[in-house]
Amino acid sequence: MTQREIAPSLGWPSSELEAKSFIGGAWASSLPGKNICSPYNNSLLGKIFPAAPDEVDSAIKAAEASFLKWRNVPLKERCARLLDFRQLLLRDIDLLSVSAALESGKTFSEARAEVLKGIEVLEFAVALENSDQGGIMEVSRGVTCEYRREPLGVTVGISPFNFPAMVPMWMIPISIALGNSFILKPSDKVPFTPCLLAGLMREAGIPDGVFSIVQGGKDVVDGLVSHPLVRAVAFVGSSPVATSVYQQATGKGKRALCLGGAKNHLIVTPDAEIGITVDGVVASFTGCAGQRCMAASVLVAVGDVDRIIDAVVETASKIVLGRDMGALIDRAAHSRLTSALDGAVREGARLRLDGRCSPRPSGCEDGNWLGPSILDNAATGMSCACDELFGPVLSIVRVATIDQALELERQSRYGNALSVFTTSGHVARYVAERATSGMIGINVGVPVPREPFSFGGTKESKFGVNDITGWGGVEHWSSRKKITTKWSAQSDKNWMS
Ligand code: NAD
User: What residue spans define the domains of the chain?
Assistant: First the structure.
């Protein structure tokens, strides 16, 4: 499976791809390129050209110049441009999905779903023209207080490899709709899909410099986060990098929201409905090959739920790589996960399903494939039960009571999501009220809130105050200016006026 074989009718280029920076409406690349290979078979997809320090500086200065004009464009007109962008996203959804699938290793349908979720955030952003009416109140006779939502200036988003389209789209539409300019630093592992987004933005008439891309890794992030003209940063990625970017940005007085890693618990109770539970658990830990911050990674079995666990193992064993499940991002991820499986067995876990035995898709034998893997009898202190593995590995921890299951989740350093599978409303409510994670699922394996309910976890899964989508995103990318006005006659003077 090479890019040349995949859907040339979609407009996918027949030559190797080039991921350059997009600065002030022009493509830029002064440093040498680095190869990017597809996770499916490690064949060459194209090259990424990291931005040089002077290119990062130029991108920020161009974004500042564009911001000073864009902020004066009325909200309704800004939203009109974004609505045109939405039409173009829908027109090119297959091309965007092929691109996201090829570079991240997920399946085409998973890639399509991520583009659609990105569009959902855009739809929330354009609805601001109707839903964000500000506030005004007469606080004393002849005296009003009002607030106006103001953009911040140059804003920056740094995204991870696992959602090349969706995570950028969590940030871009809300920030731009509010009147900011936005610079994306995509993952240096999946740099191509954001370039397609840039082309569509230009086609939609979004002015040059309002949206920019700077390609690269840590050096580029450091250049962005330390620049005096950058006012706000959002980061999505692993917890160690989230911590460092958060400290760097807030240390420079910038607003920062940094989403980190996860270790999500799925509590299964004996009264759970078997069909909904098995489908929910398997889809959660195998979707996107487990490379989702919302993926289930610990099944907490409360009491005797063996009939459900047996069905989970059987269903997961039927998953076909390349058809139902994609590949891991790179060879390093593959060897990290196979070592983790060996390590768990050494520590005493029982390997009930070994994804290393799953057949690789024909023609893709050189890819980074690992089938669903299930480790039973994982003890609470084991690495497979506590650390983020970020792959299709489900660790089963057995406990006797719901309170023990909740205690396990409370002790986790992560706090992204928790789900409970039960037919008891009382148990569902008991868990939802006591769990420490930011996003709770009841009979839902991947409890991603739909807009306008915002996305964000707790503990080491999120550093910063707001959530990244919905109204949390609006608060992150804007400030509220308070205006107090007096138009009263002197004769109406009172204690306040
Ligand atoms: P990562 O932390 O390695 O990289 C994220 C971004 O930071 C990339 O753009 C990368 O180029 C950049 N980067 C890498 N090292 C850096 C450094 N030392 N300094 C500054 N920038 C650096 O994460 P990843 O491997 O791309 O993505 C997987 C991780 O992201 C997982 O931990 C996953 O749970 C997490 N994730 C979290 C969410 C969420 O909403 N909480 C969503 C998606 C992914």
Answer: 3-260+461-481, 264-442
